[in-house]
Amino acid sequence: MKIKKVIITAGGLGTRFLPFTKSVAKEMLPIVDRPNLEYLIDECKKSGIEEVILIVNNKKPEIEKYYSKDEELTETLKKENKLTELKAIDSIGSGVKISFVYQEKPIGLANALYVAKNEIAGEDFAVILGDDLMYNQDYPCLKQLLDIYNQYDCNVVAVQEVDKSEVSKYGIIGVEKEVNADVFQLNDLIEKPEIEKAPSNYAIIGRYVFKNNIFDYIEKLKIGKNNEFQLTDALKNMLVDNNKIFAKNLQGIRFDTGSKLGYAEAFIFYSCLRDDIGENVKKFIKKYIDKNN
Q: Residue 255: which of 244, 272, 273, 268 has the closest Cα?
């Protein structure tokens, strides 16, 4: 079965970016002149996805507004012959169907997926976390997971190695066996373990591909860590029932844009890639570093 749909979670409170996120979703933070969310949707399109389902917060309607047509702005740009700007806004959300589902309260990732169950309509699907930006120009990170799913017809989670001192910040996998150099079959998942209890230093990051029966396990969940419905708990129960879950060690650069440092890094990185400002940004960085050394 070809994966056609992706859920992108964008309904959190964004408390790490207050006060800005008091009224604006953190996924709309700009990276140069495009919101973080646009980069995630680009990854979906490059991976062959046909539909993106955005999980949003009804108290922050700017995401839905951004992906809606603005006829007044379009007409103004036409009259002023601003064709470059017109092309830019016409490209927003093009090439993929975008729909919206509202999560009443941010009570865990498992709940965020479950509210989109009707839109998934019995299909297998993929998930991207809205504050996990991944860069791989030649081989999109979501496509890496989809290729494993297509080969083995099983659930797939994205992982990357982290320092042992960092394992308590992530969901960590236990490895049953290596399938190949960067693909593993799982036998355990532990949410934010203590260092001495971590089964590996492979951390789950914001990309997943799921068989549709994940919803059966989410339905049975009880409130878990931090008073939220934890996706890790659902995955652990799937393993108990002998559902295969593979992990793909992603090849790419990851930015945690839900943190201030990760966002700053992403802004600088993508600025340097730009044809219009990239070289000047690099010169400025060098000038600033030289001045302060």
A: 268
Q: Residue 100 is encoded by which pair of tokens?
A: 């919206």
147 CA to centre of own chain: 18
CA distances from 33 to 36, 37, 85, 146, 284 (A): 10, 12, 11, 29, 19
Instruction: Output the tens digit of pLDDT for each of the chain's 293 residues.
Output: 789 999 999 877 778 888 888 888 888 899 998 999 999 999 999 999 999 999 998 877 888 888 888 888 888 889 888 888 888 888 888 889 999 999 888 788 999 999 999 999 999 999 999 989 999 999 999 999 999 999 999 999 999 989 888 888 888 898 888 888 899 999 988 888 888 888 888 999 989 999 999 999 999 988 767 777 789 889 999 999 999 999 999 999 999 998 999 999 999 999 999 999 999 999 999 888 877 66
**One CATH from 3.90.550.10, 3.40.50.410, 2.40.50.140, 3.40.50.1820 for 5-154+205-258:** 3.90.550.10
Identify residue 65 by its one-letter amino acid code: K
> CB neighbours of 5 closer than 8 A, spacing ≥ 6?
49, 50, 51, 52, 53, 119, 120, 123, 125, 126
Position 253, amino acid: I
